[in-house]
């Protein structure tokens, strides 16, 4: 026997179903995210973008993200904190050194000489995390979710070099004030050039040398216009993920916890991947095997001398910390005091 429902009940059921669908759709949250530049290469391509494109799956949250690399947006990478504060985006893949003019406290994360290797870089990032988070929340209504590295930033030159001191009299592309002061100390002329413009600047002779990570250099074709690489790490190129407090406060406490766990997972993946890329890219740039992640070139690999290592390590106390502290303390009275209380002990500095 078939049970027939009255037509009025069917109409009510249909109306209820129609109302449920939009309600479920309305329950989904939409965020806009700024990514790393496409030009920076494999971390952006293989780790960051897939994470944001599968955001709901990776976080277990009903959140859809409109993710755009910054070099496709018409926004400068030096303006990330400003556009976040203005409420134009919800999540940012924060370029630390590029935004340090707007917030000098950020640069305490990556002073020249402070993170000569990955293990030290992790310790510095963990020690300084809460200081940056508090500052970003106070000044920009932005919460820090994680910190990760592009990896050691090394020197590429289109003129022969055998040691760091050979940059004396050369024009060197830099990306923050801290690095600029160090290059001045060793006799070079620092020239601020955006990453996207560096290949052309090398090609045209605007700069003689430039500093970035070996994998990013490979992806951007720097070895086409340079001849030598000196794999001496000046900085770890630490970057971060941050969310506007408006977007963060939209989430319930359990959702916030899920989001933080997902970003912890992503940043942990990037730390491991970055270290794998670093050595592989150094090989690729000089045409050696194994080379699995990049294109082979024929750069001369300059051996790092103990004297050069010592020069960079000594930069923390001689140049990078005093120069940065003077600038940072002007805008944030406790800036260097907090760094000395949190990061200095990790580095064995008194």
TrEMBL record:
Entry keyword Signal: yes
A Pfam match: DctP
Signal peptide: 1-25
Keywords assigned by UniProt, alphabetized: Signal, Transport
A single BP term in Gene Ontology: transmembrane transport
Alphabetical list of Gene3D superfamilies matching this protein: Bacterial extracellular solute-binding protein, family 7
Stored NCBIfam families: TRAP_S1
Family: Belongs to the bacterial solute-binding protein 7 family.
Protein name per UniProt: TRAP transporter substrate-binding protein
């Amino acid at each position: 026997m078939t049970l027939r429902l009255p037509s009025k009940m069917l109409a009510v059921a249909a109306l209820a179903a129609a109302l449920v669908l939009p309600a479920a759709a309305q329950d989904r949250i939409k965020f806009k995210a700024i990514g790393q530049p496409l030009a920076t290469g494999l971390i952006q391509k293989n780790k960051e973008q897939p994470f944001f494109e599968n955001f709901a799956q990776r976080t277990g949250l009903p959140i859809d993200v409109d993710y755009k690399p910054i070099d496709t947006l018409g926004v400068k990478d030096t303006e990330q904190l400003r556009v976040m504060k203005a409420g134009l985006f919800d999540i940012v893949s924060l370029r630390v050194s590029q935004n340090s003019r707007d917030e000098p406290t950020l640069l305490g994360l990556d002073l020249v000489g402070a993170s000569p290797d990955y293990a030290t870089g992790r310790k510095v990032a963990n020690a300084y995390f809460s200081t940056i988070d508090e500052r970003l929340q106070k000044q920009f209504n932005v919460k820090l979710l994680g910190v990760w590295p592009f990896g050691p930033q090394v020197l590429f030159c289109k003129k022969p070099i055998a040691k760091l001191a050979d940059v004396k009299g050369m024009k060197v592309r830099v990306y923050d004030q801290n690095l600029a002061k160090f290059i001045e100390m060793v006799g070079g002329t620092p020239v601020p050039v955006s990453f996207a413009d560096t290949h052309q600047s090398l090609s045209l002779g605007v700069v003689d040398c430039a500093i970035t990570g070996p994998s990013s250099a490979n992806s951007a074709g720097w070895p086409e216009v340079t001849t030598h690489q000196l794999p001496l790490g000046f900085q770890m190129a630490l970057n971060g993920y941050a969310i506007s407090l408006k977007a963060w406060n939209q989430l319930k406490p359990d959702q916030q916890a899920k989001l933080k766990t997902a970003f912890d997972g992503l940043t942990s993946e990037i730390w491991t991947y970055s270290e794998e890329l670093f050595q592989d890219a150094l090989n690729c740039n000089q045409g050696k095997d194994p080379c699995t992640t990049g294109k082979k070139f024929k750069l001369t690999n300059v051996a790092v001398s103990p004297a050069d290592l010592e020069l960079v390590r000594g930069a923390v106390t001689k140049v990078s910390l005093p120069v940065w502290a003077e600038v940072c303390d002007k805008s944030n009275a406790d800036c260097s005091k907090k760094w000395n209380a949190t990061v200095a002990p990790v580095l064995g500095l008194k």
